[in-house]
């Protein structure tokens, strides 16, 4: 494993061990609005500091919480806690997202971790995406799950017309609330759908892990699926709704 990924893995292990074994009232305190537009919690800022301590010597860190934190030729995009509201609500679907973009603008490394389940997903440019668990150091290729029954529709609550259209077409989904993490699971579910504006912190690492899948990105939505037919069907549904609302 590349030294950058090893450092990212170590940071994830520290964050995981701390949040699962040591609790602090400060984590639940609300702070100012972060660079990504959401209000940062003490939980977010704790994880951000751990990543900064482990990764700042690899390049300039741009965090969803604090924005650009230091100088460097390479750029490191981090979402210290993906699914912060889930974490604060003790709902077991939250994690971290880290992407490394070299000085030429090429995304070389990405890692996403589900802090609730200890699952880790990572990829290095031109290699097959891998997965495993924290503290085990055993890695396997992320294989397609051909038995999936559901997709993931992030932010479904904001688009009731899309929800109804998917229901009318017998398309089942869940909406767990952590986009980067959901993209990491794209090979195991029928699809991942996101409607509305999204930020680089949400998708940089996740889309790197979706290399080789059917990916459709437009200004108003993003669709990822292991099956082209599913992606095109959902795209048709989304476009028909958007046209009706013009």
Topology summary:
Elements lengths: L2 H19 L8 E4 L5 E3 H14 L4 E4 L3 E2 L6 E8 L1 H5 L6 E7 L5 E8 L4 E6 L5 E4 L6 E2 L9 E4 L5 H9 L4 E2 L4 H6 L6 E5 L4 H9 L5 E4 L3 E5 L2 H17 L2
Parallel strand pairs: 3-5, 11-12, 11-13
Antiparallel strand pairs: 1-2, 3-4, 5-6, 6-7, 7-8, 8-9, 9-10, 13-15, 14-15
Task: Describe the protein.
The chain has 246 residues and is of the alpha+beta class. It has 2 domains: 139 residues, Fructose-1,6-Bisphosphatase, subunit A, domain 1 (Fructose-1,6-Bisphosphatase, Chain A, domain 1, 2-Layer Sandwich); 94 residues, D-Maltodextrin-Binding Protein, domain 2, CATH 3.40.190. It has an 8-stranded mixed beta sheet, sandwiched between helices. Strand 11, helix 4 and strand 12 form a beta-alpha-beta unit. The radius of gyration is 18 Å and the shape is globular. About 2% of the residues have low confidence.
Brief write-up:
This protein has 246 residues and is α+β, with helices and mostly antiparallel strands. The chain contains 7 helices and 15 strands.
Q: What does the largest sheet look like?
A: 8 strands, mixed
Q: Which topology of the largest domain does CATH recognise?
A: Fructose-1,6-Bisphosphatase, Chain A, domain 1
One letter per element, helices H and strands E, the order comes to HEEHEEEHEEEEEEHEHEHEEH
CATH architecture of the largest domain: 2-Layer Sandwich
Beta-strand segment tally: 15
Q: Please count the helical segments.
A: 7
Q: Please mark out the parts with pLDDT under 50 across 5 or more consecutive residues, or reply none.
A: 33-37
Superfamily (CATH H level) name of the largest domain: Fructose-1,6-Bisphosphatase, subunit A, domain 1
Shape: globular
The CATH class of the largest domain: Alpha Beta
Helix content: 25-40%
Q: How many separate domains?
A: 2
For the biggest β-sheet, the strand order reads 4-3-5-6-7-8-9-10
Secondary structural class? alpha+beta
Mean pLDDT: 88
Strand content: 25-35%
Q: Whole-number radius of gyration?
A: 18 Å
Terminal CA distance: 49 Å
């Amino acid at each position: 494993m590349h030294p950058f990924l090893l450092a990212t893995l170590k940071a994830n292990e520290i964050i995981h061990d701390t949040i699962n074994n040591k609790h602090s009232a400060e984590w639940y305190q609300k702070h100012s609005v972060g660079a990504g537009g959401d209000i940062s919690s003490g939980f977010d800022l704790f994880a951000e500091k751990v990543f900064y301590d482990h990764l700042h010597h690899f390049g300039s860190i741009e965090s969803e919480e604090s924005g650009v934190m230091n100088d460097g030729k390479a750029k490191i995009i981090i979402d210290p806690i993906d699914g912060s509201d889930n974490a604060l609500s003790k709902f077991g679907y939250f994690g971290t997202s880290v992407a490394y973009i070299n000085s030429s603008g090429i995304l070389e490394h990405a890692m996403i971790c589900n802090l609730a389940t200890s699952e880790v997903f990572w990829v290095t440019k031109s290699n097959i995406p891998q997965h495993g668990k924290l503290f085990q150091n055993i890695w396997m290729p992320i294989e397609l799950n051909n038995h999936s029954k559901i997709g993931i529709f992030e932010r479904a609550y904001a688009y009731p017309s899309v929800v109804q259209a998917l229901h009318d077409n017998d398309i089942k989904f869940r909406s767990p609330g952590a986009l980067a993490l959901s993209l990491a699971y794209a090979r195991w579910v029928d699809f991942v759908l996101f409607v509305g504006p999204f930020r680089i912190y949400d998708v940089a690492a996740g889309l790197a892990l979706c290399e080789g899948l059917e990916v459709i990105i437009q200004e108003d939505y993003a669709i990822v699926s292991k099956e082209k037919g599913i992606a095109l069907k959902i795209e048709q549904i989304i476009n028909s709704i958007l046209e009706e609302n013009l």
